[in-house]
Amino acid sequence: MERRTFLGLGLVALAPVALSAEDWRTTKPNAWTAHEVTPAIEAIFGKVTLVEEGVDVKTPKVASNGGAVPVKIKSKIDAKTVAVFQDVNPESTVAVYTLNDHSIIDFEMSIKMKKSGTISVVVEGKDGKLYVGKKSLEVALGGCEG
Amino acid sequence: MSTMKIKAKAENDVVSAKVMIKHDMLTYDQAKTKGTTANFMTHISAKVGETVVYDMSTSQFLSKNPVLKFKFKNAGFKKGDQLEMTWSDLSGATSTEAKEIKGL
Prior knowledge:
The structure holds 2 protein chains of 2 kinds. Chain A is of the alpha+beta class. Chain A has 3 helices and 9 strands; from the N terminus they run H-H-H-E-E-E-E-E-E-E-E-E. In chain A, the strands form 2 sheets. In chain A, strands 1, 3, 5, 6, 8 and 9 form a 6-stranded mixed beta sheet that branches. A 3-stranded antiparallel beta sheet of chain A has the order 2-4-7, with no helix packed on it. In chain A, strand 8 and strand 9 form a beta hairpin. Chain B has a single domain, classed as Immunoglobulins (Immunoglobulin-like, Sandwich), CATH 2.60.40.10. At the A-B interface, strand 6 and strand 7 of A face helix 1, strand 3, strand 4 and strand 5 of B. Strand 6 of chain A pairs antiparallel with strand 4 of chain B.
């Protein structure tokens, strides 16, 4: 009996700990080779029904340098994932954030844009819905030729 | 060699971080033109102690030497706690650097 209890405890200890970190390049490889935004969204989230609200995306109206376009993302949605896409580079997916209880959706990063286009930010809520915010901008000097 | 500039500051219950990472972020197209191999960061994350506070899978379309800003909740962090950033790239290289969070 004691031995059983001991084994039981061992199993509990071995149970996988819920990791907040996820390598989306390994788990969703197709997301990174998709050439269009919609298939990229489908590759990551398995569906493409989007609710257009609650996600705030900010960029300059005209980016002078497409090699480093600042993108600001804000949302108050209680979410587990934030994914960023654009429609002008060879592939669509830019980055995927994995969130946990400590996360606040208030991100900024600098990205490359080959030419003028639209940035879409998809937030996967804990309610299972996909929320999207979009922002179109002009790019004066493309950033992929380097 | 240092590859990162990290700034982190706590205010009320929120920590704001700004990180600049030195990396070429060479895309497949750029690499083709230059006759080399593409290499860009594929994952960037941050921890305070054992607590993950930022986790991001990235593509070739982050800018060269990207600047990242983010915020996270102060989960009872104490004076002296550090924000530890780690990146890894396509070539398999990784780098970890830490900086004390101000204002705790």
